[in-house]
């Protein structure tokens, strides 16, 4: 165990357990940041949970609202938070004071699963703040970063006034889901712009020059300086005609940061909200995988190593609670862990590859076992290189869907309720993937910052079959207008028709 | 212990307060608070305090889940529908319920309707304060020394130190053993205001009319309770005869007889005479009816009763006339005619639920 983790105020009996569980986790090949556990009473737990895990964030009423809800549900005994873990290096995890020992063990094992995932899943690489120059280990000091954000905003609040700041934070939060979660992974475009051919050298396009009757006069009538000026003029013309952004930009917040005319404090607030949105994005992208992975490992570690015989019943009870399914909502813990186990089994038995795919004899398939034992290796690979979408897309099989009784549901206008629609594999998979796309958020991009040549902002919604909620969309446009300071317009489809929602600072308009 | 989140929590509550204020008229006319009333707090459903984001319409979406059931089966019970069922996103849609204490609610009501604070008639003992010697402490003047407790303390100490000799029981208190009487100031809340609600329950008062009375009396209660430390409420129902009932019966009874308003006024006068000495109580009289009375004679009797018995006793007499399809609505006109210049008589016509707010303002806006 690293020295860092030893300095925590964990009671000694829990520290002993932590050491044991950490050793078990290492033994299984988990690879995690140093992990620090802290025991908290329930109200502190609720407090930290309402801050999204970070004890020191910027002031905002919505944290108070989250606290109110958590407080009520824990005081009325509706729900308790058992564990919380922060993607930070060293990782910080919280244990709830007064939980039974077996609960604490489960939580610890679960936490090591999460931390391993944070460290190794590629999506989380975007939360690196650089590399340690000596060891090459990623730096993730997000607790510090969040505290710094808090300090920045508090300082502005003292200068500008908390009401103003808070109102602007509200506006920025309305745009919080308008980021491009893939941006951190995008490589710079292959063609370097400096190497691109300048437009005036293209055939058929020449720089305008004065007419020269005799060749030797060329350098006098069209001297270099003059040609340079002409070249600049042409380039300016071209760039004027270019739309900004050239391609629709999904990172609306980043775009605003760059192009909106903001005051210094507004810029800082927007930057903070955006950076935090990017920090939390990988967690939304990997909910099923992350929880599934942690659940896989807590059950492995507890049942094979850490649980005493007398604890098994309690363990099973708790575990059953975590994995309980309801028809109303998909349980990411359950789906995740089952899918990892399914993958492990398939790779252990060699149920993959061309031969397996082409085999359509049921009996052969059922008794298919090549005894390859590649399962464990495969799931470690999966946890590194996939996000929820690719995870489901690649590994969800018809067998698995049937076994897990997956179904798609939808609203029935006839009966005015949600109903089971189908169990047909392709339909279920399609719907599940849709649900996971962009973490369940509509895809909206900036189209043009000089719409109609009037400095208005045009956004477009990439409509994939489901309309936007119009009242919410209009409320977002109001927020957007306050950031952009000019009229804003959103192009979307409503019931199959193109519709422009517009807000000009005073009134909403809907144009078809 | 104070938490860092307390500040944000306070901000949130402030925002909630603003929301309640904004929507107060709607809350009042809907009466949706009443069912959720606890002893000290009311939980108020606040819609739409969430931060707006681009999101999908719920009904086109649906989602994926697991479990038994055939196509066409409902998910869950009706009324407990899932939100968009986003996998991994734990947020459904919900209405936030916030607890607000009754006194906060009264303050909000006061702010929103610009109600003046009530001027005490000056005849009530507000709340009597009394010093009582009930406690002990280790310091004090010698005149207040508690001999027996000091002795006992010394005895305990000597026994535990082993210096007590049963044969020669000498007890010598040291400084630490001394105990002195100490006083506490006790505020004795004196129920110094009483509301007498009277309601016509004759056949012409329908359920909707009674609901209006119920809602209005809740807010009147809340406001007056905020103004006085102790507040008693008494309920009188009447048709041709009057009787005193408890709160539940008050709002539920429906009789079919005729209406003699004087019967209720007589009973109220008797109750005041018996239980509420005029120099100690602030008395509020509220009467709700649809304005139908049996005869002109009875109306005159009412006027006399008010002049002689009720008005001298009460802070104010409020008459609320609820519009009903059957009532003639004559009574309010009679009252207005007889008490044109009497500030103690406040009348208000309540056409429908939306008029409740204005009616409250008419009754309580004078600061009586």
Describe this structure in words.
The complex is a heterodimer of chains A (512) and B (368). Among the domains of chain A are: 148 residues; 100 residues, no CATH class; 74 residues, no CATH class. Helix content of chain A is 51%, strand content 12%. Chain A has a 5-stranded mixed β-sheet, with helices on one face. The mean pLDDT of chain A is 88. Chain A has 21 helices and 10 strands. Chain A is of the alpha+beta class. By secondary structure, chain B is α/β, with parallel strands linked by helices. Chain B has 3 domains: 72 residues, no CATH class; 61 residues, no CATH class; 175 residues, Rossmann fold, CATH 3.40.50. A 6-stranded mixed β-sheet of chain B has the order 8-7-6-9-10-11, with helices on both faces. In chain B, strand 9, helix 9 and strand 10 form a beta-alpha-beta unit. In chain B, helix 1 packs across helix 4, helix 4 crosses helix 6 and helix 6 runs parallel beside helix 11. About 5% of the residues of chain B have low confidence. Chains A and B meet through helix 3, helix 4, helix 7, helix 14 and strand 4 of A and helix 1, helix 3 and strand 2 of B.
Present the secondary structure layout.
The complex is a heterodimer of chains A (512) and B (368).
Chain A: H1 3-6, H2 12-27, E1 35-40, H3 42-50, H4 61-75, E2 83-86, E3 91-96, H5 101-120, H6 142-160, H7 162-174, H8 218-221, H9 224-241, H10 252-259, H11 264-285, H12 287-306, H13 312-323, H14 332-349, H15 353-358, H16 362-366, H17 375-385, H18 388-395, H19 398-403, E4 406-412, E5 417-422, H20 425-436, E6 444-451, E7 456-461, H21 470-484, E8 488-494, E9 497-503, E10 508-511
Parallel strand pairs in A: 1-3, 7-8
Antiparallel strand pairs in A: 2-3, 4-5, 6-7, 8-9, 9-10
Chain B: H1 5-22, H2 24-30, E1 41-46, H3 58-61, E2 63-66, E3 96-101, H4 102-113, E4 127-137, H5 147-161, E5 180-189, E6 191-200, H6 207-227, E7 230-238, E8 242-245, H7 247-252, H8 261-275, E9 282-289, H9 296-313, E10 316-322, H10 331-338, E11 345-350, H11 356-364
Parallel strand pairs in B: 6-7, 6-9, 9-10, 10-11
Antiparallel strand pairs in B: 1-3, 4-5, 7-8
Helix pairs in contact in B: 1-4, 4-6, 6-11, 8-9
């Amino acid at each position: 165990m690293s020295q860092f983790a030893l300095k925590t105020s964990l009671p000694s009996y829990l520290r002993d357990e932590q050491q044991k569980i950490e050793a078990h986790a290492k033994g299984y090949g988990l690879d995690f940041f140093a992990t620090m556990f802290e025991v908290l009473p329930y109200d502190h737990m609720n407090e930290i949970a309402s801050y999204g895990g970070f004890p020191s964030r910027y002031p905002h009423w919505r944290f108070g609202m989250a606290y109110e809800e958590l407080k009520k549900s824990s005081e009325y005994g509706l729900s308790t938070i058992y564990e919380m873990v922060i993607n930070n290096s060293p990782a910080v995890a919280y244990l709830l004071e007064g939980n039974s020992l077996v609960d604490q063990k489960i939580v610890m094992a679960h936490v090591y699963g999460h931390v391993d995932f944070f460290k190794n899943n590629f999506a989380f690489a975007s939360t690196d703040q650089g590399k340690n120059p000596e060891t090459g280990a990623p730096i993730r000091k997000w607790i510090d970063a969040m505290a710094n954000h808090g300090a920045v905003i508090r300082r502005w609040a003292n200068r500008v006034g908390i009401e103003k700041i808070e109102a602007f934070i509200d506006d920025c939060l309305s745009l919080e889901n308008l980021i491009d979660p893939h941006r951190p992974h995008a490589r710079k475009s292959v063609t370097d712009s400096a190497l691109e051919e300048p437009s005036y050298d293209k055939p058929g396009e020449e720089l305008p020059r004065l007419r020269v009757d005799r060749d030797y006069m060329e350098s006098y009538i069209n001297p270099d300086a003059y040609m340079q000026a002409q070249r600049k003029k042409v380039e300016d013309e071209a760039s004027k005609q270019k739309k900004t952004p050239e391609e629709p930009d999904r990172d609306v917040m980043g775009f605003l940061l760059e192009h909106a005319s903001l005051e210094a404090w507004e810029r800082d607030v927007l930057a903070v909200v955006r950076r935090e949105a990017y920090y939390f994005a990988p967690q939304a992208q990997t909910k099923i995988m992350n929880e599934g992975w942690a659940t896989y490992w807590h059950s492995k570690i507890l049942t094979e190593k850490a649980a005493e015989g007398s604890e098994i019943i309690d363990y099973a009870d708790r575990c059953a609670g975590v994995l309980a399914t309801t028809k109303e909502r998909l349980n990411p813990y359950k789906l995740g862990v089952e899918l990892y186990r399914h993958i492990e089994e398939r790779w252990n038995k060699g149920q993959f590859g061309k031969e397996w795919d082409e085999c359509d004899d049921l009996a052969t398939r059922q008794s298919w076992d090549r005894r390859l034992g590649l399962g464990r290796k495969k799931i470690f690979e999966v946890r590194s290189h996939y996000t929820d979408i690719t995870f489901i897309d690649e590994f969800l099989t018809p067998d698995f869907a049937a076994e897990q009784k997956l179904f798609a549901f939808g609203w029935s206008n006839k009966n005015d309720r949600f109903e089971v629609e189908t169990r047909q594999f392709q339909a279920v998979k399609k719907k599940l993937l849709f649900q996971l796309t962009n973490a369940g958020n509509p895809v909206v991009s900036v189209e043009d910052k000089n719409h109609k040549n009037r400095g208005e902002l045009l956004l477009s919604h990439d409509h994939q079959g489901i309309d936007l909620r119009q009242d919410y969309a209009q409320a977002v446009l109001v927020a957007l207008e306050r950031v952009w300071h000019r009229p804003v317009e959103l192009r979307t489809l409503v019931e199959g028709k193109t519709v422009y929602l517009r807000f000009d600072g005073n009134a909403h308009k809907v144009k078809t | 212990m104070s938490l860092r989140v307390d500040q944000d929590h306070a901000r949130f509550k402030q925002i909630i307060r603003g929301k309640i204020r904004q929507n107060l008229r709607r809350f009042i006319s809907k009466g949706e608070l009443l069912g959720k009333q606890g002893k000290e707090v009311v939980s108020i459903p606040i819609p739409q305090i969430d931060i707006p984001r681009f999101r999908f319409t719920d009904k086109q979406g649906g989602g994926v889940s697991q479990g038994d059931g055939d196509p066409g089966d409902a998910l869950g019970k009706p009324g407990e529908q899932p939100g968009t069922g986003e996998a991994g996103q734990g947020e459904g849609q919900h209405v936030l319920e916030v607890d607000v204490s009754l006194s906060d609610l009264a303050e909000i009501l006061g702010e929103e309707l610009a109600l003046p604070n009530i001027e005490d008639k000056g005849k009530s003992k507000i709340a009597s304060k009394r010093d009582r010697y009930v406690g002990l402490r280790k310091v004090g003047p010698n005149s207040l020394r508690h001999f027996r407790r000091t002795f006992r303390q010394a005895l305990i100490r000597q026994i535990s130190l082993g210096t007590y000799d049963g044969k020669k029981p000498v007890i010598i208190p040291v400084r630490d053993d001394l105990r002195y009487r100490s006083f506490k100031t006790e505020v004795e809340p004196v129920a110094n205001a009483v509301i007498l609600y009277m309601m016509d329950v004759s056949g012409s008062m329908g359920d909707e009319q009674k609901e209006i009375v119920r809602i209005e009396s809740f807010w009147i209660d809340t406001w007056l309770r905020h103004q006085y430390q102790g507040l008693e409420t008494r309920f009188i129902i009447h048709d041709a005869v009057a009787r005193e009932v408890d709160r539940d019966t008050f709002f539920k009874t429906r009789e079919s007889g005729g209406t003699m308003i004087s019967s209720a006024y007589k009973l109220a006068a008797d109750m005041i005479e018996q239980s509420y000495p005029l120099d100690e109580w602030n008395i509020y009289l509220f009467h709700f009816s649809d304005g139908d009375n049996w005869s002109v004679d009875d109306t005159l009797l009412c006027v006399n009763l008010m002049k002689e018995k009720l008005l001298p006793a009460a802070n104010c007499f409020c008459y609320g006339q609820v519009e009903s399809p059957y009532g003639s609505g004559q009574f309010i006109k009679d009252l207005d005619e007889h008490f044109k210049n009497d500030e103690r008589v406040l009348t208000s016509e309540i056409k429908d639920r939306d008029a409740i707010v204005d009616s409250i303002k008419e009754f309580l806006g004078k600061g009586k």
